[in-house]
Amino acid sequence: MTYAIQDLVIRNVTPFDNAEITNLVAEAMWDGPVARWLHPDDVVRLRDTPRYFEIFVEYAVQCGEVYATADAETGRLTGVGLWFPLTSPIPAPADYEGRLKEVAGEAYDRACQLDAAIEAHHPMEPHHYLAFLAVHPADQGHGVGSALLDRHHARLDAAGLPAYLEANHPRNRDLYQRHGYQVRSVIELPDGPTLWTMWRPPMG
Predict the structure, then answer these.
(1) Long-range pairs for 39-44: beta carbons < 8 A, 24 or more residues apart
(2) Domain range for residue 157?
(3) Residue 128 and residue 144: Cα distance in Å, rounded?
(4) Cβ 198 vs Cβ 184: under 8 Å
């Protein structure tokens, strides 16, 4: 299914191409503040980031909703949003602890700290959770992220459902605020970056 939005095409990713999605998420986020906190070494971070995000991409494909933006002319993947509909229980990722230990290496303890902090702040009421919104570096600043947000927000608003996420950079936080999100709490990672948990009520 495709949706024309200006010069973009937003589609449910079918068939799912886990490798393509994983590579995009890794390229967009490998040098972000949380990634740098997990792996300060540039070489290690560049090597291990795709394997780390592969866990979550596979999980979203199995239990969530994946949207992608593609260039209308070339079909090249430019952005992706990984959502989880937490309106009813969903299973945990298969063998998550074992896989995380394998891919995180020396960053395993910090990855566990990150998970614990995120879990401690996560709301219990039914909502859709935006785990990752990633835009390829070459396509940032052209409305890709906003188009992905608008696509899913329209569904949530029609259903009367709220949305939740964590922003890891003031620039991202400000983008989400323009889309109706409000800061709910602040997470201070040990010797690391600040995360802002954000909540968007349904809008009529």
Answers:
(1) 39/107, 44/105, 44/106
(2) 2-200
(3) 20
(4) yes
